[in-house]
Automatic annotation (TrEMBL):
The lineage of its organism: Bacteria, Bacillati, Actinomycetota, Actinomycetes, Pseudonocardiales. This is 3-oxoacyl-[acyl-carrier-protein] reductase. PANTHER family: 3-OXOACYL-(ACYL-CARRIER-PROTEIN) REDUCTASE, 3-OXOACYL-[ACYL-CARRIER-PROTEIN] REDUCTASE FABG. The keyword Oxidoreductase applies. It holds the Pfam family adh_short_C2.
Amino acid sequence: MLVTGGNRGIGLAIAEAFAALGDQVAVTYRRDADLVPDGILPIQCDVTSTEDVDALFTTVEEKHGPVEVLVSNAGITEDGLIMRMSDDAWSSVLDANLTAAFRVARRASRNMLKARSGRMIFIASITAYTGLPGQVNYAASKSGLIGLSRSLAREFAPRGVTANLVLPGFVETEMTAKLPEARQKEIEGLIPLGRYGHAAEIAGAVTYLASDVAAYVTGSVLTVDGGASMGH
C-alpha cells in the first residue's frame, strides 16, 4: 500500500497503522526521509509532477508489487486573505492538494482496474464543509476532493474498486502545536468533544475503509472531527 505525504503527521500515523497490520507500506516524502521508521519504504516524490508520480509507482511495483491501497494524503497550505492572495498561491495549493490526488489516482487505477480490486482513500479536511478565513485556496482544494472521490467511486464501482474520503477535524500535529495557546483554547471550544483529535484516530478510519469489512462502502465521506462540523 502507498501513502503520499507519509513521512510525518497524519500520513505517518496512517503508514504506521498499516505496517502494524503486517502490510507492505511505502510513503512519499519531499524532505526528511529520516522521519520514516524502519520497515516502511520511503520514496522521494514531487506529487505535482506526472513524471515523478509515474516513477513512484514503478518503484513501488518493483519492490512491493501493484498498489492495492492508495491513501492520497500529501498537501500544502499557503494561507492569506483573498485580497492579498497571489495567483501562484492559489494554483500551487490546488495543484498539490487536488490535482496531485488526480495524478496518483489515475496511475493507481491502471493495476486496480485490471485486478478488479483496490481501495482509494483521500484525506481532505472539514474546511471542505466549513471554510476558513485566509484559506480559500486550501478549502477549495479539499472541497474538490469530494467531487473527485465520488466521481471515481461511480466510475470504478463496476470493477470492484472503491473510493472514499476521510475528513479530519482539528488534530494534534506540529502545525497546531505552533498556534498561540489562546487560539488553541478557542478552537477546542468549537469542538463538541472538547479536544483535538489524535493522528491515530484518523489512521483508524483509514484502515477501516481499506479493510474487508468496508468492501460495501464507496463514495462515502467519513468525518473524524469530534463533532465540529455536524450538520453539514
